[in-house]
Amino acid sequence: MYDFTIAYDRFEPASEQLREALTSTGNGYFSTRGTAEWEDMSDVHYPGTYAHGGFNRETTIFGGIPIWNEDLVNLPNWLVLKLRIEGEEAIRLDNVELLDYRHTYDIRSALVQRELRFRDHAGRVTRLRSRRFVSMVHSHQAGLEWTLIPENWSGRAEVVSALDGRMTNRIVARYRGLEGRHLDPVSPRTFGDEVIALKVQTRQSDIYIADAARTRVFHDGEPADVDRDLYQKEDYIQQVLAFDVEQGHQTRVEKMVSLFTSHDNAITEPLTAAGRHVQRYPDFATALAAHESAWAELWDVCDVQLPREPRAQLLLRFHVAHVLQVCSRHTARHDAGVPARGLNGEAYRGHVFWDELYVYPFLNLRLPEITRALLLYRYRRLTEARAAACEAGYRGAMFPWQSGSDGTEETQTIHLNPLSGRWEPDESRNQRHVNAAIFYNVWRYYQATDDLEFLRDYGAELMLEIARFWASIAHYNPDRQRYEIHGVMGPDEFHERYPGARQPGLRNNAYTNTMVAWIAATAPQVLDLLPPSRCAALRARLDVTDEELHTWDDMSRRMYIPFHDGVISQFEGYADLEELDWDHYRAAYPNIQRMDRILRAEGKDPNRYKVSKQADAVMLFFLFGHDELRSIFERLGYRYDSDLARRTIDYYDRRTSHGSTLSFVTYAGVLAGLDPASSWDRFMVALNSDICDVQGGTTKEGIHMGVMSGTLDLLQRSYVGTSVADGVLRFEPRLLDRLDGVAFTMRFRGTSLRVGVKDDELTVLAEAEGFRGPLRVGVGDEVRELGPGSDCRFALAAQPSAVGR
Ligand code: BGC
What is the model's pLDDT at position 67? Predict the structure, then answer.
């Protein structure tokens, strides 16, 4: 690894699919895995291209029962570029002797490069450099370039340039029993001599996808004399370009590609658009330069400097690049949510979960227009969420745990346990807390941006409908004189039901109930913020009565939160579960993160034990500052003593297997103020989790968006201690020894800020360009108002060291 480069110096078949995911290139509209363009789909190589919203549903007959699944479809492979020498078999990594090999990903511009020197079976030595990008300027554009030098031979070379529509979804071994065919062929065609194009259609959702490719060859900078030969079938089109190469001389091949779908705006249909656009594209170098300049602009807003921690520095930037590859300004022009596993694999079938909660904080304070657009993904699915609530006997809007094309519940009902090979029921749809996350996301977006128009036109309606849902799923227990919620799950997916219970669901998940108390208190504030006419209109249209507002107020004071042994109980009855023999399992298994699978494979029910997959009750300390949480608890009439956080975090930390890498982010966050050294350890685990594939095989199926973005948020929120309250941007820097020299840009309510911590001093500079006042920033009790172009400094108190273990 280098400053801005992830590099692999040897080809290792067993790691290739992981590297493909990590070196994928995208622009927030589409993304393509870093697969070598000359390789077909196999157990080693997996070409994959995915676009936001490219979903399709298929039926699988499973044990006689039809199962309906929605997948983010692996789109036609635009990469295909193969080299044939003297008419022989195309070069692959496994049919030549590799003399040199280097596969790199340049973080600055998400540029993928492979440099090879190989000897073929006839003893010919050839040098090949391949570079590729997916344009951050023109969302439909991608480019691939080869530079070829025959070292000890001259002769005839052929390049096969193809568009392959025969793709299936099959990278996730667990899903292979399910239907993976999603594309039907439509038609190939050419546009003039140089351009081949292919149109396909998703089988059920009727999305048309078209790619077009223009391939050119240059000798020493001049267009080469090339014979072109065309082969086309309905699902595949290729052009073979034949030309002479000379020993020691450079030949360049460039393949410029366009990709359109029928979801796009401003087109007549995708094939025509793809063909027209690609014909106009400039050459590779010009397109690449424009692409790099767009990334430079993004880095100006999103870079994070952490000079004292080189590895963390590199990985933070790597995560910035990946987050922007999936969520960019291009994303904002489409109907897109945040797929939990990005756009470079098929895990979780491209579905949208609650992980947005970890993604938006970074975007809110840099590129809030992207969060705004992603929140609209939810708004557009409000009708479906209302219908889901109604069908389940509730009011308001009930968003699904897993969301895809139209916002219906996409969570599967059975799931394969790879350890036991058995299909097991999946109750995870009972994670209704996703609705609390959506509410929270809208509110935090509003706090960071002051975008009252968004609240007025969309946000308030979403929030009111969610508050209403919670009020209807909750019931009043007169014995306790408290509101309770039964039949749901918290974020910890190991607990779906009580041991031995016939019905899934738990009573009074503390995380959910506390979020609901907060929602019930916040929803009326949202109404107060709206212009009176809009407030009246919305209340009338949604029929929000005074009585309903009264109920919300009552819930904000009387939701039930279970406790035991001085800590928050994850759910009612948690205290009665059995303790797990952690020492035994740690000794017996090399990795116990997925304790659920281990226990089930042993014939035991994880529901019986005090074992959590991830932060659950502990989430509360992550999402709210201590003052905020104290006021929620005190309003509820519960004691919030100064040690509750420490006790609760410690209790669950000892009982959590961190089977979701999100859990490392959460624990790193909540421990920042309590145990800085331990917090840093977990931060590093989270930073390393994808690049080192800590879960042993999950990252090749797609990067973890929540974790990547979560680490960026950790630095700003938990370490620099950024929060927004009452229109003031506050900082509470911690871990100063690690953080010394940290610097980044933020956008707060329209104004760009440069924030830095150096020598126990925090500096905030307000850019003059685009300044929007009043701008108030604070540390502790000290709040200062900044004008355009002015800065301020805050002295920071000494801190416990984070360098300790
Ligand atoms: C986690 C969920 C998360 C999902 C998608 C699961 O393993 O338990 O909290 O939403 O992955 O990332």
Answer: 87
Can you tell me the distance from the alpha carbon of 493 to that of 428, in angstroms, rounded to the nearest whole number?
Answer: 7
Residue recorded with tokens 């290792």: 12
Any ligand 1 atom below 6 A from CB of 494: no
In this structure, which residue's CA is closest to atom 9 in ligand 1? 491
Cβ neighbours around 397 below 10 Å, total: 28
Pocket lining: 660 vs ligand 1, CB cutoff 6 Å: yes
Q: How far is CA 222 from CA 225, 240, 255, 567, in A?
A: 9, 19, 16, 73
Ligand 1 contact via 491 beta carbon (within 6 Å) = yes
- Position 270 in a domain: yes
Residues constituting the chain: 805
d(CA 400, CA 389): 10
Which residue, by CA, sits nearest to atom 12 of ligand 1?
A: 340
CB 327 within 8 A of CB 702: no
Three-state DSSP at 723 gives: strand
Alpha carbon of 561 to ligand 1 centroid (Å)? 24
Among all chains, which residue has been given the structure tokens 């009982």?
Answer: 655
Is the model's pLDDT at 804 over the cut of 70?
no
Contact 719, 743 (CB under 8 A): no
Distance 661 CA to ligand 1 centre (A): 8
Is 356 a residue of the active site? no
Quick one: tokens of 237?
Answer: 């089109």
CB proximity list for 330: less than 8 A, separation 6 or greater: 27, 28, 29, 136, 139
Among 326, 403, 417, 493, which residue has the most ligand 1 atoms within 8 Å of its CB, making it the best to mutate? 493
Q: Are residues 728 and 616 in the same domain?
A: no
**Phi and psi, residue 95, nearest 5°:** -120, 15
Mean pLDDT of 283-294: 98
Q: Give the total number of structural domains in the chain.
A: 3
Domain end residue (candidates: 629, 651, 673): 651
The side-by-side arrangement of strands in the sheet containing 482-488 is 474-477, 482-488, 506-507
Q: Is ligand 1 within 6 A of the CB of residue 348?
A: yes
Residue 309, domain member (yes or no): no
Using DSSP, state whether 630 is helix, strand or coil: helix
Q: Report the 10 Å Cβ neighbour count for 575.
A: 14
For residue 361, report the distance from its CA to the centre of ligand 1, in Å. Answer: 18
Task: Tell me the two tokens of residue 306.
Answer: 């952490």
Tell me which residue of 4, 3, 12 sits closest to 693, measured CA to CA. 12
Ramachandran quadrant class, 497 (left: phi over 0; alpha: psi -120 to 50; beta: rest): beta
Verify that 613 and 734 share a domain, yes or no.
Answer: no
Q: Give the DSSP H or E segment for 276.
A: helix 270-280
The span from the CA of 105 to the CA of 244, in Å, is 31
Question: What is the spatial distance between Cα 206 and Cα 405, in angstroms, rounded to a whole number?
Answer: 12
pLDDT in tens, 29-72: 999 999 999 999 999 999 999 999 999 999 998 778 888 999 99
Q: How far apart are the first and last CA of the chain?
A: 24
**Residue to probe by mutation, ligand 1, list 326, 349, 355, most atoms within 8 Å of CB:** 355
Domain that holds residue 514: 417-651
- Cα(476)–Cα(455) distance, rounded to whole angstroms? 30
Asked whether 356 lines ligand 1 (CB < 6 A), one says no
Domain final residue pick, 232, 267, 300? 300
Q: Mapping DSSP to helix (H, G, I), strand (E, B) and coil, where does residue 514 land?
A: helix
CATH number of residue 576's parent domain:
1.50.10.10
Which pLDDT tens digit goes with each residue over 746-768? 999 999 999 999 999 999 999 99
Q: Could you tell me the distance, in angstroms and rounded to a whole number, from the CA of residue 704 to the centre of ligand 1? A: 9
Atom 7 (ligand 1) nearest CA:
660
Q: Which 3 state secondary structure label does DSSP give 605?
A: coil
Distance from residue 660's CA to the centre of ligand 1 (Å):
6
Catalytic-labelled residue, pool 493, 548, 572, 732: 493
